[in-house]
Amino acid sequence: MTSSDADRRRPRIGVDIGGTFTDVVLEVGERLHSSKVLTTHAAPEEAIIEGIRTVCAGAGTAPGEIAMVIHGTTLATNALIERRGAKTAFITTRGFRDVIEMRTESRFEQYDLDLVLPEPLIARRDRFVVTERVNAQGKVLIGLNRAEAERLAERIGAGGYQSVAVGLLHSYANGAHERLLRDVLLAARPDLSISLSCEVSPQMREYERFTTVCANAYVKPLMSAYLARLGQRLAEAGLDCPVFLMHSGGGLISLDSAREFPVRLVESGPAGGAIFAAHIARSYGLDRVVSFDMGGTTAKICLIRDHTPRTAQVFEVARSYRFKKGSGMPISIPVIDMVEIGAGGGSLARVDALNQIRVGPESAGSEPGPACYQRGGARPAVTDADLILGRLDPDAFAGGSIRLSITAAEQALDAAVGAPLGLDLTTAAHGISEVVDENMANAARVHAVESGEDLSTYTMIAFGGAAPLHAGRLCEKLGITRLLVPEGAGVGSAIGFLKAPFSFEATRSVYMRLSAFDPAEAARVFAELKQEATDFVRTCDPNADIRHEYKIFVRYTGQGWEVPVDLDPSDADAPEAGRYRDLFEAAYRTLFRRVVEGLDIEVASWSVKATTPQPPAERIEPLQAGRDAVTEGTRSMFDAATSSMVEARVSARDRLAAGDSLAGPAVITERETSTILPTGFRVTLQPDGTLDVTRERPAASLRDPREEAAQ
């Protein structure tokens, strides 16, 4: 038995910091204990300690018994979106100072004459150049003069910078000049935080590589300080155990690796949710799943095929223009591919200049929170609308830890939306709900189109504190007929951390045409990447059973983007050009239904992922609807399917037995969330505690309540 196997038998904790809530899950054997506390933005570690104390007390577990803490956070993402990172300098090759501002010169909206490009992360005054040049093969054309580097180091020191990003042309092929700059900078300023693009993202395409190393440098001091405080506070609380971080690719890395490469944490929280959804998909044998994760600040949507989340080598943070590709900040690292928008329970509503309701991306967060929290918030949020629509119990929100005020929600909503538009409170709240639901549906449609998928053939898996409230309506909008809400959905991402493997994906750009294929060089690249990825995993568990996955990124000569091609281990140990050609053409034909004759083929990048085995998922045989579920009365709730207030049956999830069934309109309540069943939906509880929701018939189209009254 490896040490990771032994640790999985001892109590473990998963922690997910969101913009509004911090979720803590304690796993003791097969049992899960959870806690949801408001995020403390000034010191996020304080909410973690509070949540850990709560779950340990509830489970009767002493902090000293905990084997490990697995942590995911949106802190790095939020720092990039809100532009509140360190004062950072960027050093690049002379002549390439403005690459991060010029971008790729493509227009993500071709016909918008007033198009405004996002501001670069680092302003021009903070960007510096050195005279040096390396070509795409790694050959030094102009050497870096050490005296010039020392003069630049003096300017950096005098500028009061906390962090420096170094991105030189073609450093992925030869990083010697970047490493020399680091040595010179540290000799002048030992306290500087330095990030090198040849280590952070050794891949071609200088714009993506430069923005990635700038992002890493920008958040590195912030994340290093936070992780140091977290380690100290956990030790003070009696947790003498290792801490691991969830990275964007869906695996775990050590605390030291996270400090050095914090950009790998940018999508760590959402990645945990995708792992959670993939585990449920394996349990139910579902090959096509869309995961829907909606918390207090953001909503995340991910496509999962064959029990595996879609992955990518580049993703964008903070898309600024209608979710369009190209309007965000590209980060060039291995990542679970998903779309993320500012739509959550805390997303604030307003009326724009055209008298249209707008929701998000601005969020009330946890400080002050929605108006109904009674913590100083005066503007209406999605949670306020859900409360007025009867979807939430004001006395049982977050397990009763937060008492919600209907009066405060009504006052805020009427002032911001109802009065300006002349709407009653119910219609105004419904308008807010419809806008945020349509925003999420539109984001899902765009993501599906970009991936060439038809969502009507998918099953939705919903989790996060707000997702079960809105998932039914989202299924209606997307034409999805089946919805699963797993047990523990309110803290789904934190549960996903506990199911994630230790893993790390090492990538490198090495250009090689198949017509001039060098098997020895290809084998050498794979061997080095394998060693790099393995070393990262060994920092988490020196004795782990490690498996390796190999991949190349291939294209026809002259094309701009590559197709990922999975390889067997033998293809990496004994590379063959003919074999690579066959695999590429098969993958290309799957995507485009044909191959291109007469063109040479080239490998642009190489990848090796080292990972420990995931725990097996128990296969669930779905039960058909059985006896009617026991209900605890009714609640007045707005039903979007009929555009009217109805008496919805209410049932507590923990009082349902496997096979129990309930038809909408209804509400299934639990500590961390509630599942809303519109008219036309039926739920059946499965043996593992999952709510299996199906549409019995297409819901009626929305009608104006005033038209119904006239009839």
Description of the molecule:
The chain has 711 residues and is an alpha+beta fold. Among the domains are: 95 residues, ATPase, nucleotide binding domain (Nucleotidyltransferase, domain 5); 135 residues, Dna Topoisomerase Vi A Subunit, Chain: A, domain 2 (3-Layer(aba) Sandwich), CATH 3.40.1360; 88 residues, no CATH class; 109 residues, 2-Layer Sandwich (Dna Ligase, domain 1); 69 residues, no CATH class. Strands 13, 14, 15, 20, 23, 24, 31, 34 and 35 form a nine-stranded mixed beta sheet that branches. Strands 3-2-1-4-11-12 form a six-stranded mixed beta sheet, with helices on both faces. The protein has a four-stranded parallel beta sheet with strand order 6-5-9-10, sandwiched between helices. Helix 12 crosses helix 13. It is globular.
